[in-house]
Fold this sequence. Notes:
Blueprint: E1 6-11, H1 16-20, H2 33-46, E2 53-56, H3 60-73, E3 77-79, H4 96-102, H5 104-112, H6 125-142, E4 147-152, H7 154-165, E5 182-188, E6 191-199
Parallel strand pairs: 1-4, 2-3, 2-4
Antiparallel strand pairs: 1-5, 5-6
Amino acid sequence: MNAGTRIILVRHGQTVWNRGERFRGRSDIPLDEIGLKQSEAIAGKLAPSGAGAVLSSPLRRTMMTAQAIAAALGLSVEPWEDLIDIDYGLWQGLSTAEARARDPLLYQRWLESPHLAAFPGGEGLGDVRDRVVRVIATVLARYANRTVILVTHVVVCRVFVCTVLGLDLSHFWQIAQDPGAISTIGVREGMLVLNSMNDTCHLKGIA
Length: 207
């Protein structure tokens, strides 16, 4: 690994469904008004980063966030399918109350043992980790000694941090990743190193 490589991990800005706590997954919903303001604040924060590439999940909420960042850097956004959100399958679009009523045992497993939960017709966290591992390998090979920005979703961000730290996915809920948060990952002595996590200082005053 090259010590000059830096990954900036960004969770997209707020959507209406973030406020309502629904299982968003592959639902292609846009940023809301606050999310748009957050994307501009993220862009301002990352404009001096010197990033050479902005890669994003292809869903609208991430692409909208990534486009603001890329514009501030004079770059274009490259959509990456492996950065897409988890597939919640039949739970897609359900509120937490609806999911609990539909399958209380699976809902409880998701809360208590997320690494063991597999969504009907969708994915589990292990599937997301497989994609994250591919993303990391590709970034390290393609963007050696450069800074790259990845714009993705809360589930992917949490799994990404667990992977960097060598934690199993039972620690999923212990990783904070708020809307519009920035985390940075570097390379030191041949290892990925989490340098900062869940930075939201740039979002102060946005409401």
